[in-house]
Structure formats: C-alpha cells, structure tokens
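Supplementary notes (optional reading)

For those who missed the lab, this is the record we used. Protein: NudC domain-containing protein 2. Length: 155 residues.
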Amino acid sequence: MSAPFEERSGVVPCGTPWGRWYQTLEEVFIEVRVPPGTRAKDVRCSLRSRHISLAVCGQELLQGKLFDSTVTDEGTWTLEDRQMIRIVLMKTNRDAGNCWTSLLENEYAADPWVQDQMQRKLTLERFQRENPGFDFSGAEISGNYSKGGPDFSSL
C-alpha cells in the first residue's frame, strides 16, 4: 500500500507564534510547541465543533472559534516527546473548495502565498482521489484551481 497523498506531497504549513497548522481535504493539523518535559496531566485541551482551547500548566496557548466546523468526537490531541502537542481535527466539509484561510476566525491566517499553496495542494489531493491510478504528489497545478478547481466528474 502506498503512503497517503499528504505524506508523499508534503504539507503547506502556516507558522504561528506557538507552532504551526496545516490541512488536508479531511483534516486540520495543529502542532504546538510546549516546554520540554511537559506531562499530559499539565495539558487542558477542549475540542468542540467550532471552538478550541488549549492550556499548558495553566497558561492559555490557543483559544477561540475555529474557521469552520469540525466533527467533535473525531478530534484528538497527543503529547509527543513531552515537547509538542499535536491536535487533529476532522473537517465537517471535506470538499477541495473548503480551504481554511485561517485556523481561528480572524486569527492565525495564512498569508496570501501560503493560502494559494494550500488551495493548490487541496485541489491536487482532490484530483488524486478522483483518479486513484495516478500519482499527483509531484504535480504542479496552474490556472483555475480556486474553490477546488474545475469539476470533471460529469465528463
């Protein structure tokens, strides 16, 4: 079995003061740097459909209304190597046109170039799913790819 599309093609990260976030067609990944030696019992994380909050050792690191809705009971967080928290959110709308432009409403927005690269990647990921026999991981896309690109499903 081959690796998932996002592993072969890389990610388009959006840097933040606390770490970074990136997305695929189905998920949003959040990586938060925490002090080395952090223990799981030091972490307070709440994941709801449109809201997230994360505090470590009583200090709030991330809190607010998400850019779009997520599937509440499929969101997870893990503490990795006692120095990074990885949060995975499952998008409710898993369409290539649903490219989050920011993590939270009005916060942690991708700059225009990063947003463009994210949209290109999601469009290529959509093409990969529609054409499973082809490998689009090294492909470049140009033209009309905003909102997920053209719809060829009816051809």
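If you only remember one thing from this example: The CA atoms of residues 102 and 109 lie 4 Å apart.
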